[in-house]
Amino acid sequence: MTDPWVALEPGADPAERARILRRAHETFTEAGTMPRPVRAVVADSWRRSARAGVGPDGTASVELTDGDLGTYRSEHPLARVMPLFRELMGTFAADGEHLLAVCDAHGRLLWVEGHAATRRQAGRMNFVPGARWAESAVGTNAPGTAVALDRPVQVFAAEHFIRRVQPWTCAAAPVHDPRTGRVLGAVDITGGDGLAHPHSLGFVQAVARAAEAHLALLAPERPAVDPPRLTVLGRDEARLVTGGRDIRLSRRHSEILVLLARHPEGLTGDELLCALYEDESVTPVTLRAELARLRGVLGPGLLASRPYRLTVGCESDVAVVERRLAAGAVMGAVTAYTGPPLPSSRAPAVARLGRRLAEGLRAALIACGDPDLLADWAHAPWGEDDLDVWRALVAARPTAAIRARLASLESELTAPTGRPHS
Q1: 84 plus 120 within the same structural domain
Q2: Which run of H or of E encompasses 94?
Q3: What is the mean pLDDT of the chain?
Q4: How far apart are CA 147 and CA 181, in angstroms?
Q5: How far apart are the first and last CA of the chain?
Q6: Cβ distance 160 to 141 under 8 Å?
């Protein structure tokens, strides 16, 4: 074969090659020996797949759905070149009864488009958006192997490690960030034996290069001046990044900025007093002095008065969690949540914000029932005594250790607080 990356040499019989590969695959999976007809790139991939614990009868798992998938796709760099992919490959995929697929750098499928009947058929093996097709998860396949090797690759029929994928043929090429060279993901064409041709591999490689050229021409998405960014989750003292400065704020200044970031329209002095102080004897003079000190920390022009407000929009990690939760992106929201906002704060409005945020996350977690997300919450400091979450975790993953922890927690929370009198 002249090109080891192409699945079939000119003149080869696809049906006969597929039969040979099936026998070779059976030999490898049963005896661990590698027959000679298997291409080196495929043989190496089969060995990596076996070392990763992939079974030949396995299937891909769907990791992202609904809001999580939508949020992740919209934020991914390859979203900017999806119109180009559709323009260059969409008609080819639809007319040839193929699929256009795009994955991220971890082999997770972001888009799967093309011929409707082919898409339904591929869905039976979880070749769908949100599914993880990394080589380490499902073995040899074009998109997963392309990102693993960082080079274009074609996979034909029984060269796929998982048996249920062996009726398919695919070709994929990695797409890189033109500025950093980092692999962003891969573009793939998937279909029948007709794709086992050098042209399909050259085609996806050309499309990947066109995407990289397009990304290089696009203007940066970020504004010329980054807006202030406020980090308060899991921190007693907020961190503010603004104007090239990284500022660690005092606890009271942190509370004030949390409230002003949530109220871009501004707050009056009386509103801030009620929001910040449990003690009603605190005077407006005390608050004005605190705001004057904060203005000096922030620098000129950022904090205005009458009403008190920030003169530019301020992005906070609290707002990120709330947006993802509102969009139904539960995984994204839980990932962004690193603890309550200003956990030691006694400011009434900050405490209410923390309770609302935690309650919203808990409700979403219990409703979705994802055992991994529930476990992350239950084993975090803020969730280790959360009885409702532990009960939901037992329902989703009833292992002995989890059931024992729930029983212990229920016993602790229902035990009498004092000793009985003798």
Answers
A1: yes
A2: helix 82-95
A3: 89
A4: 13
A5: 91
A6: yes
